[in-house]
């Protein structure tokens, strides 16, 4: 997803952001507005009742064209597209491929849009498209697995909220508190150097310059701290938000599976047909849970690697700045004052 551009329509009366998408399998860029993403999301949620379609970045009534908001939304859409393209079902469904590949031809876009909106294989009919293994699942084992995932999801959601709160607070401290404190220390070194400058003796000059540089170094480090959360903490927060959206989807997904299981238990006379339907729904639900876990491991491993690499680079940058300041004192050629 390229940097979005501001577009207008109705002779400039209405403005919107246009995102350039370049699918790797076509290498042909298409332009989409946020409302197109929103339309696609609604179609996918309607069509796939037991697939967790990731939530889109939130809408915003004001400040839609501010740089920070545009940057954050673009990052959110990149995460969203990465999850969409890595899903074995969503990535290959017709409506998603239409979204990715339909060019500037307005007529073709509307035809594909209407075709998707008239799709009969949505909701419960989606299960008619699923083929299951010959040997059916053990329904008691399925129930145990679902309950285990519910416990996992609850714990993960609680810790996502806690971690996001911690990260937000730590980011705030770095951007305000840490920056301010380092700059106060830097200013103290500079003021001490200025005080020393009142002594005009030659052997003091290089020390005064070194102190001034040390002050500048600390002020620069304060700026480093203020800028750093964008590099290592905000990406984690974005990932946590995405997964919180996923977890919010699962109660409805599990409700579909639970409903099928309850019908099997409540209607023993229709056990054969109901068992078959329940098996299809259970297979689809467990497959989605398995995909969730695999994607979770991939995403969090990658994001933590990125975070730690950024942290290492950050502290190496600070170390380099302090070493530069240290070397300024090597140049101090002390000249012993002559005795009276």
Automatic annotation (TrEMBL):
A UniProt-annotated Pfam family: PX
Keyword Transcription: no
InterPro entries for this protein: AH/BAR_dom_sf, PX_dom, PX_dom_sf, Sorting_nexin_WASP-bd-dom
This protein's record includes keyword Repeat: no
SUPFAM superfamilies: PX domain
Taxonomic classification: Eukaryota, Metazoa, Chordata, Craniata, Vertebrata
Coiled-coil boundaries: none
Family per similarity comment: Belongs to the sorting nexin family.
Cellular compartment(s): Cytoplasmic vesicle membrane
GO cellular component, one term: plasma membrane
Boundaries of every PX domain copy: 1-107
Protein name (record): Sorting nexin 18b
GO biological-process terms attached to the record: cleavage furrow formation; endocytosis; endosomal transport; plasma membrane tubulation; protein transport
Main location: membrane
Keywords, in A-Z order: Cytoplasmic vesicle, Membrane, Protein transport, SH3 domain, Transport
Any one Gene Ontology molecular-function term assigned to this protein's record: phosphatidylinositol binding
